[in-house]
Write a structure and sequence with these properties.
Helices cover 30% and strands 20% of the residues. It is an alpha/beta fold and 431 residues long.
Length: 431
Amino acid sequence: MAYSIGIDFGTSGVRLAVIDPQGYLHFQESYSFPPSVSDWATSWRTALFDLLATIPLKYRQEARAIAIDGTSSTIVLCDQVGQPLGDILLYHDGRGQEVLPQLEDRLRSYPDAPPKEIVLSATSSLTKLLWFSRQPYFAQAHYLLHQADWLGFLLHGQLGITDYHNALKLGYDVQSLTYPAWMAEVLASLAQPIEPTLLPKVVPPGQAIAPLQANIAAQLSIPSECQVCAGTTDSIAAFLASRANQPGVGVTSLGSTLVLKLLSKAPVSSRAHGIYSHRLGSLWLVGGASNTGGAVLKHFFTPTELATLSAQMDPQQPSPFNYYPLLQPGERFPINDPYFLPRIEPRPENPVAFLQGLLEGIARIEAKGYQLLVDLGASPLQQVLTAGGGATNQTWLAIRRRWLGVPVAQTEYTEAAYGTALLAGKITQPT
């Protein structure tokens, strides 16, 4: 039996999954980062090798592929042997804000550049690279890597390689599969010019890069021919975990917020809505995230109340309330308005009626979100798979079916590590 290993590096810890060629999950384990981390490189390295060592020997001895996902736009500046220089900039690090005006000024000369919202952010990989270029240690830099790239390097020993999911926020053009011409010109025009050779080579997610280094293979009792593959981002890995691989299939994550992703034959972008597309083989993954979601429900109800009250409502009987459930002003998608006001009035005395109004409000937003993606050019919605904590609420599932008008089901697996293992094993992925 040949096993594939997927490793998901998230914000608070790491998860690992081992699957067989049919996608059956044989083993999973997790590792939590300490409350305060001062050296992320050491913490990541420790988590990586400690987790690999927890895999039962029988699976390690038959492992054939490993892939790693990381948080989008978490980047590492490295010297010629792969040692990090300066701070590792995490996905939410906003230090790029000080160089953002400089990038905005340069990109005004390139109106045909890909959707600028992708890179024109204080937290994009490209903006962070500009910030790095102003640091005194930048002269020693040889490689810019994303989190997944650097962790993969620890296993296969090859520097300067990334995947086109991670490279999107660096400015890589995923339609032409090349760095656009404007990038080299913009980087050369900066007050502190950046050589294009610093940028990583980009390959498809899941592509085998190199076998596990011999000393690591021997240490972990993993075959030396086990391939370490190009990775992906954590959000894409979570989508892959659903095993959706046909145009028109959407995946809704019902967590603290509401996140929609739709597999499409055509890419979609909208500057007005902050929408862009990830490439998945010959297909495209488009989506958006609303500020509504489970956090609103938990603000008003305990988990026990949510379960008890949901069981008392008739999901086929529409609610009379036109709620737009938000905890505070501001919405991202399908309405992009930082001042958009919550709408959760009037509040009935009956808690069942109030909860149903909230559930229907979120379902209405979900339906509008998918319709917007289709209106902008995405493939028509055919089915919705559901992940996240809200996926188990059967009453909510029935309400959502009524609003969406397509089959709605719960995904069997929701962990990003499982999706990354599928990527390593290339099992039922979009082509």
